[in-house]
Amino acid sequence: MPGLMARKRRGAFRFRRRFFAFRAMGVSGHLKNGGILHKKMQTASRVHDKRAVFFPLASSLRRGLDGGADKMRKTEGRDRRTVTAKRIFDIGFALVLMVPALPVLGIVWVIMRMQEGRAPFLFVSERMKTVDQPFMLYKIRTMRCVHPQENRGVAGGDKTHRITPLGRFLRRTRIDELPQLFNVLRGDMSFVGPRPPDPNYVRAFPGLYGQILKSKPGITGLATIIYHNHEEHILARCKTPEETDAVYRRRCIPRKARLDLIYQRNANLRLDLYIMYLTAAELFRLPRRKAVRWREIHVPAE
Q1: What are phi and psi of 153, to 5 degrees?
Q2: Domain residues for 256?
Q3: Which candidate in 3, 136, 156, 300 could, as Cys together with 244 as Cys, close a disulfide (CB 3.0–4.6 Å)?
Q4: CB atoms near residue 298 (< 10 Å)
Q5: Do residues 52 and 182 share a domain?
């Protein structure tokens, strides 16, 4: 009898050890019913049959791993379809917008040439599409030309005096963003996504931007719709490049990142169309009660 009791205890101990090992692997979903587990342990200890313990657990392990793999394959397939549909939409819509954009760019070029002579028409700056992949971003120049060393960092109150009268109009109407249609056609950017960051900020926050830049940078985005005006108001009060940089790092980057990650978790073509509509509502007289409500709900607290 003492030998039989010892064998029962050893059998029950082996079951518990295997069960908790499988649960630590995250595949015990099929074995969560405490009553069934108790009966299995009693049966295993009574009949001393290792198969009564091992086979149900192995079957549950196999079902758990197969189910997880199937779910992962479905998610990856859905993500690939979303990316493909978004890229097709970006190319098609960019080609459509190029028709009215080219005459507008020609008119702006003529006006700028008349006012400023042979000054550069485009402002070209390095931005990041991934943590380790830069690209050149195109915009219409809206500021007077200075030495490159004086033109680093984000635009704040220290650069306001350099904005030309034409540049103020271009910024207000977002016409200065039209050359980014070429970035979209090249595949550097999308219409909707996080704004492409400066390399200095990517080097300063590699983990944060490593997550954000899993989404392709965009001309507009959720953070642009909700936080852009507030960001301009904050930075306009800065008087030096150092103060602008410090305020941008401390106050703007975390809040924009939070909004970019909210977009990333909910990204789909329908949301992209809605964000593009809200962007147009900022420029034209369009109904935007939902835009105001969205801003009230999602704008990050100071």
Answers
A1: 85, 180
A2: 120-298
A3: 156
A4: 15
A5: no
More confident residue, 23 or 267: 267
According to DSSP H, which parts of the chain are helical? Answer: 2-24, 34-47, 50-116, 165-173, 180-186, 199-204, 206-212, 222-236, 241-247, 253-266, 269-283, 289-298
Which DSSP string do the residues of 4-27 spell out, in sequence order?
HHHHHHHHHHHHHHHHHHHHHTT-
**Could you tell me if 108 and 170 are in contact, meaning their C-beta atoms sit under 8 angstroms apart?**
yes
Is residue 132 domain-shared with residue 222, that is, in the same domain?
A: yes
**What pTM value is reported for the model?**
0.69
Q: What is the number of other CB atoms lying within 10 angstroms of the CB of residue 4?
A: 9
Q: Please give the DSSP secondary-structure letter assigned to residue 301.
A: P
Which tens digits make up the pLDDT trace of 257-294?
A: 999 999 999 988 889 999 999 888 888 777 755 555 55
* Distance between CA atoms of residues 249 and 247, nearest Å: 5
Is residue 55 located within the same domain as residue 196?
A: no
96 within some domain: no
* CB 249, CB 203: distance < 8 Å: no
At residue 161, the pLDDT reads: 84
Q: How far apart are CA 188 and CA 181, in angstroms?
A: 10
